[in-house]
Amino acid sequence: DVDFRCTEALVQEGMRADFAITGEPTELHIGVQAKGVLAIRVEISGTAAHGSTPWLGDNAILKAYDVFRRIETLPFSRESSDLFDRPSINIARIDGGDAFNKVPDLCSMDVDIRFLPNQDPGAILAEIRELPDVRIVKTFQRSPAYVSRANPYVRALREAVSKSLEGEALSVGRDGASDAISFLEAGVPAVEFGPTGGGHHGPEEWVSVRSLEVYRRALGDFIAALPAWLDAAPGDKAPLRAVDGGLA
Fold first, then answer.
1. How confident is the model at residue 226 (pLDDT cuts 50, 70, 90)?
2. Same domain, yes or no: 46 and 105
3. What letter would DSSP give residue 64?
4. Does residue 88 sit in the same domain as residue 173?
C-alpha cells in the first residue's frame, strides 16, 4: 500500500467478483457514493521587487491565497446532491519565493478538490481557468464512486447490517476517495462498509474495538444469507455488473 494502490493492482491483475466490500471505517453504515478527486497545481505570477519596498511589486504568494479564496466561491463549490451538501476544497501545498529580501514573482499552489458524483471535473477546471492570473500546470483525477442503492447485494447487506445493529443501516456518501472505484470501473458493484473509527491521516488514527464485533457479525450474517437469497433471486445475478454495479 506504500508503493501502489493495492485494490487497483488486484483489479488490474484480474480479480473479479459479483460484489465487493472495502473495509473503510463507515460508522457501520454503507457507503454507496464517494467523492471524486480533482487535484490541481496552479501557478500564479506576480511582479518582483525589493523586500523593503513591497508596494513596488505584486506578491505572488498573496495573490495565490486570493485565488484560493475565489476558487472557494465559484459556482461548483455551492452545488450539492442527495448525500452531499457540498464538494470540499483544500490547499494542500504552497510554494513561492526564492529570497528573503525579495517580493516573490511566482507561486505554485496544490489544490485538492473532492467533487460530487453529479459534477463534471472538466466544468470545474473551466471555471478555475476563467480566474485572472491563473495557470493550471498539472492535474490528477480519480472518478467518484456510485452504486445504486437498489442493487440486490446492497439491499442484502443493508438488511444484514440492520439486524446486527438492531436499527436501520443508512446508505451514506463518503467524503474521501474510495477504493471501491477500482471494482466499479471493472463492472463489479462495490461499497464501503466498515467499523467505527476516526482521526484519518492524523497522529491518533483509531478504530472502535467494540464496533469490530458488530462488523464481524454483520459480515457473517450477510454471507450466511447469500445462498438462500441467490436461490430466491437467480435472475438478478447475471446483470448486476453491467446494470446495477457500474457508474450509471
1. confident
2. yes
3. H
4. no
Does 91 share its domain with 170? no
Where in the sequence is the domain holding 80, given as residue range(s)? 37-142
Residue 214 lies in a domain: yes
In this predicted model, what pLDDT tens digit does every residue of 61-87 receive, in sequence order?
A: 999 999 999 999 999 999 999 999 999
Asked if residues 128 and 40 have their Cβ atoms less than 8 Å apart, the reply is yes
Q: How far is CA 83 from CA 93, 161, 171, 173, 206, in A?
A: 29, 20, 9, 5, 25
Give pLDDT tens digits for 101-127: 999 999 999 999 999 999 999 999 999
Instruction: Tell which residue, 157, 220, 183, has the closest CA to residue 26.
Output: 157
Helix (H), strand (E) at residue 161:
helix 152-165
Report yes or no on 209 lying in a domain.
yes
What's the mean per-residue pLDDT of the chain?
87
